[in-house]
Write a structure and sequence with these properties.
The complex is a heterodimer of chains A (372) and B (70).
Chain A: H1 2-11, H2 19-36, H3 42-55, H4 69-79, H5 83-94, H6 98-102, H7 106-112, H8 115-126, H9 131-138, H10 145-155, H11 160-172, H12 174-185, H13 188-191, H14 203-220, H15 225-240, H16 244-268, H17 272-275, H18 278-306, H19 327-339, H20 346-371
Helix pairs in contact in A: 2-3, 3-16, 4-16, 5-10, 5-15, 5-16, 7-18, 7-20, 8-9, 8-18, 9-10, 10-11, 10-20, 11-18, 12-18, 12-19, 14-15, 15-16, 19-20
Chain B: E1 2-5, E2 10-15, E3 22-23, E4 28-34, E5 37-42, E6 47-52, E7 59-60, E8 65-69
Antiparallel strand pairs in B: 1-8, 2-4, 2-7, 3-6, 4-5, 6-8
Classes of the chains: A mainly alpha (372), B mainly beta (70).
Chain lengths: 372, 70
Amino acid sequence: MFDILKDLIYSSGLVSLTAGNMVMWLISFILLYLAIKKRYEPLLLLPIAFGILIVNLPLTYLMEPEHGLIWFFYHYGIELDIIPPIIFLGLGAMIDFGPLIANPKTLLLGAGAQAGLYVTFFAAVLFGFDLQEAASIAIIGGADGPTTIYLTSKLAPHLLGATAVSAYAYMALVPIIQPPVMKLLTTNHERKIVMKKLRPVSKLQRVCFPIITAMTIMLIVPSAAPLISMLMLGNLFKESGVVERLTNASSNELMNIVTIFLGLSVGATMTAGTFLNPKVLFIFFLGLFAFVISTAAGLLMAKFMNLFLKDKINPLIGAAGVSAVPMAARCVHKVGSEANRRNYLLMYAMGPNVAGVIGTVVAAAILLKNLG
Amino acid sequence: MSELTAPIAGNVWKILVAVGDKVEMDDEVIILEALKMETPIYCEESGTIAEIKIKEGDAVNEGDVLVIFG
């Protein structure tokens, strides 16, 4: 009788519980609170937080290679790089590239904002991260969740939880992080600039855009193919107007399904053993640094372009060059309307914003090609 | 007789005026919802509302007429 009881106690998780596990529970509870109460990116934070919680319950072996349930999700979804491109298919089916087509100059802003990635890359190397780790941290500055996950899973899988959570956290914190940088680097006069009306974009241009972009980028940077091809296919579904069912499936059902597996798997990589070390905390700091530098780079790029442009652009839209779609564009709109309440920058900011998605993918592909 | 047009595409979230209301420049007239964000649309001049061309829930394109001033 006593033996059975002893056995029960030893086979329970309670005996194997560590203080680290309990710290991870606390992190999970905080993220659950932020997701449910504050609605910070709940679609991802909620499954991530629950993933963290369950993987820190000992002896469940959920992440045990070849055995655990979530390990299979992780292995097939993330390690084999299936889920991030599928998310990109859905994004493509939702994104309106119209503002970018109407004003192709804004592509430069999407590219300019990627400067933050490279600055952070060198900063991370200086602080003792190896090249692969540094690249995975730097990509946080692009503020693109799926691309961050894609690159980290290939270059530095042990950092996946940290880079993914900080990328999504900073996307949710755009309205807090970006405005001070925006106000610091622009004058009130610049923020008041009302931009020239966007020209209308024809259906032919909308349909040609994903085809031409896919061909151009993949011919120049072939390693960007998995993400760019899916992004542009999704967009072609949308703009062709003839496959509404595929458009809806990509942007709703398929996207929602893989989001569940993505969030849960990312959360489950965050065991106390891998997550609780000073290096990881430092990633959050460097990620924030990357994000701020990217925002600043976009703003400065816009001011630089204004030196040559006859019709001045509002430099605030440069801050939307980070790819957090559409949070960064909303933020630009808000800061712009504070300076001039009849200035509606939303659609102008969507140009660099969607260009930023493309820019981040290209930056990730270049890092991957040189370091993978 | 002049009109107020939609500066961005979106859905009409709230109409804050009625026909016959007197409005001043910079008054909030309509709230549009675009990209999950509420965007207030302000008057560009003072006048009296003669006609409201939209109703709450309508989708509007950039340049569509929202209200006409008398």
